[in-house]
Amino acid sequence: MNKNECSCCEGELVWNSNNKAGKDSYQCQVCNLTFNQLAFCPDCKWQAEKIQACGAVSYFCPNCNELKSKSRITFQYQKNGA
Ligand SMILES: [Zn+2]
Ligand SMILES: [Zn+2]
C-alpha cells in the first residue's frame, strides 16, 4: 500500500495537523479515523526515521545506515488505537 488510503473505506486520507503526539497523522473524514504514517526502508524493510532539515524531508534507515530518498520510501498507514 503506497497511497494515502483509508484501510476501512478506501477513501483518501487527509493530513491532520492537529495531532498531539507530534507524529505524522492522517485522517479519514468519512470514518473519522486517524492513522499514523510509518515509513519503511525500500531495501531492507526496516522502519525508517523521518529527518527534517532546512525544510526538506528525508528518511534515515538505521539498518542500512544511510539516507533514503522520500520517493523510494514505502509508506504504511497504521490505524490509531482508540
Ligand atoms: Zn475511511
Ligand atoms: Zn534499510
TrEMBL record:
Protein name, entry field: Zinc ribbon domain-containing protein
Domain of life per record: Bacteria
Pfam families according to UniProt: Zn_ribbon_6
Cited InterPro entries: DUF1407/YfgJ-like_sf, YfgJ-like
